[in-house]
Amino acid sequence: MIAAVAVFGLTSVNAQDTDSSQTAEGKWLIEANTGNATLGNTGFYLSTSDGVTSYNIGFDGGYFVIDDLALKAGLGYGGVSADLGDTSVFSYRIGGKYYVNSMIPITLDLTGASIKDATENPMWLGIGAGYAWFLGNNVSIEPGLRYNHSLNEDFTDEGVFQVNVGFALYF
């Protein structure tokens, strides 16, 4: 399946309309990404293991202030359901995304979460990179790698490495 997506993506890159770049100044961006249950995020995930179910739903949006540079913000809502009780998580993200050569997205952002009834909440500084496969003028698939550095040592002092797949709309 990954090979099929790669072949489809590479052929779609060659079919791009270079006269109206998706990442041009003044355009808007809406993203949905896969997520990671270990930190607050604005992505999508569902995980069940040993009677514990975790879920999240969220989106990011951005505006291209200059060609290839979008300022972004995102919101997410999720929770954990377990035998010992349920909790909810509200997540937020703010940062920027720069497209090198209009197709290699580099992100830098601050991500945090507010966990119901928690004494400490996580906050992360994240950096990521990937590749944007444009499927026409308004859609891209963006697989990527991301590293999140914990800014709250009372919550955790460990960093988190992620492999994500993002889907973006441009208008």
Describe the overall structure.
By secondary structure, the chain is mostly beta strands. It has a single domain (2-170), classed as Beta Barrel (Porin). 8% of the residues lie in helices and 59% in strands. The chain has one helix and ten strands; from the N terminus they run H-E-E-E-E-E-E-E-E-E-E. The chain has one helix at residues 2-14; strands spanning 28-33, 45-49, 52-66, 69-82, 85-100, 104-115, 123-130, 133-134, 139-150, 160-170. Strands 1-3-4-5-6-7-9-10 form an eight-stranded antiparallel beta barrel. It comes from Olleya aquimaris.
Give the helix tally. 1
Summarize the main sheet. 8 strands, antiparallel, barrel
Termini separation: 29 Å
Strand order of the largest sheet: 1-3-4-5-6-7-9-10
> How would you classify the quaternary structure?
single chain
Strand content: over 45%
Number of domains: 1
Helix/strand class: mainly beta
- Overall, the morphology is elongated
Number of strands: 10
Q: What's the architecture in CATH terms?
A: Beta Barrel
Compressed to H and E, one letter per element, the order equals: HEEEEEEEEEE
How many whole angstroms does the radius of gyration measure? Answer: 17 Å
The CATH topology assignment is: Porin
Unreliable residue runs: 1-19
Give the mean pLDDT: 84
